[in-house]
Amino acid sequence: MRLDELLEELQVRIDAVRGTRDRVHSLLEAVVSVGRELDLAQVLRRIVEAAALLVEAEYGALGVIGPDGRTLAQFLTVGLTDEQIAAIGPLPAGHGLLGEVIHHPEPLRLTDLGAHSSSYGFPAHHPPMRTFLGVPIRVRDEVFGNLYLTDKRGGVDFDTEDEAVIATLSVAAGVAIDNARLYEGSQRQQRWLRANAEITESLLSGSSRPAVLELIARRAQEITAARLAHIAVPVDGVDGLVVEFSAGDGAARQGLVIPLNGTLSGAAHRTGMPLTATRAPDGGTGNHPGEAEVREVNGLGPAVAVPLGTTGVESRGVLLLSRSAEDPAFDEGELEPLVAFAGQAAIALELAERRRDAEQIALLEERDRIARDLHDLAIQRLFATGMTLQSAARLVEHEGAAERVGRAVDDLDETIKIIRSTIFGLRTKDRGSGPGLRARAARAVGEATPALGHPPRFSMEGLLDTDVPQQIADHVVAALGELLSNAARHAQATQVGVTLKAGPDELVLTVSDNGKGIPAQGRRSGLRNLDERAHDVGGTFTIESPEEGGSRVVWRAPLRGVS
Q: CB neighbours of 269 closer than 8 A, spacing ≥ 6?
């Protein structure tokens, strides 16, 4: 062999050794980079970026296998621009060639992916791809997902060395994912514990039921990274669950009546068991009847409904959480602490109800005491005073003075009748039957939802079932129905808000919207009726025009002195 040929062959071998050394160095750097992260989303992103870099792939992707073990719950890509991803449309679910690596979790290397029997071809606007390398990622004994790499730069095929490098990276990736999961789980557990402590502190400090429900929903939304969180509770007289508090993308759902049949919340309430919907409803058929409810809010996907109460029996309410369509489904690791949190929330509801019951009992006992004191003390003293005046009238010789004493006795008799009537009202109030004002108002809002085209934001505050007389309750329910009907027919509003509040002195109903407002020269017959209803009970009816547009109407009725 000539010297120049020998030197050339030696240089080739030196370059190969250097290339191998550089590749091993790059692989070690990639392993260290992947293992350094503790945030799971960042770990997954680093894995797919490192894989594409190590084998010089034009495109790379990491598919996370969903809870069913057959489809992809997440799909992260490298090499595609945001415009290309948007043009391609929905991300793959794990069928075709991608599903081949899911069903047979072994490395797969192809020189022409289109020639494989499982290939379905590409959707419109998808860039052409030829060479393919797929390698599964295992976390302990579980196949977590798969790395997909296509089109090695230079137009060459992926070789056995590329396969070995990615297989080695996948082992390190499995360890990094496991560490990130453990860290994420411990952090999530800490957040749940802090949330439980915050709720307990709120209860012990005497916070109201609405405040506690808001705290429960918001903390659950934050910890699970949900876009929608709401709490729906059963209400007497309403055939379904009423959304008492809602946060996130579904904030306008407050006051919405959710049917018990065909919804995720309804099924969770009836069975007392947590239920999940793992697929975005816009994607077609799903795996649970609860998708009908999730579809009411566009753009939402995986959801979970957790009953608030004892497992296996009808709940006190349901906590619903829903993520974006592209987000992962709720897994078992998230479900366990969420169920425990819902148990704490059920205790919160129980305590709030017991506190409300205790307040009502204390109020009724106070009324009984006042009635007893009026009967045993005030009436007897007035009666005795009247008897004394009657006796004294016989001794009065002046005719005018005797007449005045007689009128005073008559006034005392009339006062005794008034006090007795008041005693009767105190002792019979709130002992009737039938649904209370809360249930009737919730039903009125629920019935107006189809006509409005959206559920109004609805809140109630105060002792509506205790302090509001039946006459005023009838008027306010009628006024509420009329106002919601007007909003549906005339306002052309996309948002309607209803607030019903019982204070110590008056009941206030406020209905606001973002519609076109109430014209000054429009028909006023319905508004006159509302004004007359308020006048009949000694209240007022006002119309306001907020600066931001729309209208706000306020219907008030006094409570103090009403029996």
A: 232, 234, 241, 260, 307, 314, 315, 317, 318
Name the DSSP class of 311: T
The tokens describing 138, both together, are 């295992």
What mean pLDDT, rounded, does the chain reach? 76
Closest CA to 426 of 562, 536, 559: 562
Q: Find the mean pLDDT for residues 328-343.
A: 80
Residue 193 in any domain: the answer is no
Q: Report helix, strand or coil for 444.
A: helix
3-state secondary structure 270-300: HHCCCEEECCCHHHCCCCCCCHHHHCCCCCE
Q: Is 226 left (phi over 0), alpha (psi -120 to 50) or beta?
A: beta
Strands (E), 46-105: 57-65, 72-78
pLDDT for 510? 92
- HSE-up (13 A, CA, CB side) for residue 284: 2
What pTM was estimated for this model as a whole? 0.53
- Cα angle 488, 493, 499 (rounded to 5 degrees) comes to 80
Distances (CA, A) of 64 to 145, 242, 336: 4, 36, 21
Asked if residue 174 and residue 42 are part of one domain, the reply reads yes
Residue given tokens 């919601």 in the structure block: 484
Residues 151-166 have pLDDT tens digits of 988 888 888 888 888 8
Whether 64 and 52 map to the same domain: the answer is yes
Q: Which domain holds residue 129?
A: 23-183
Residue 545 lies in a domain: yes
Confidence of residue 468 (pLDDT cuts 50, 70, 90): confident
Candidate ranges 13-22, 391-400, 416-425; pick with highest mean pLDDT: 391-400
Distance CA(220)–CA(231), nearest Å, equals: 11
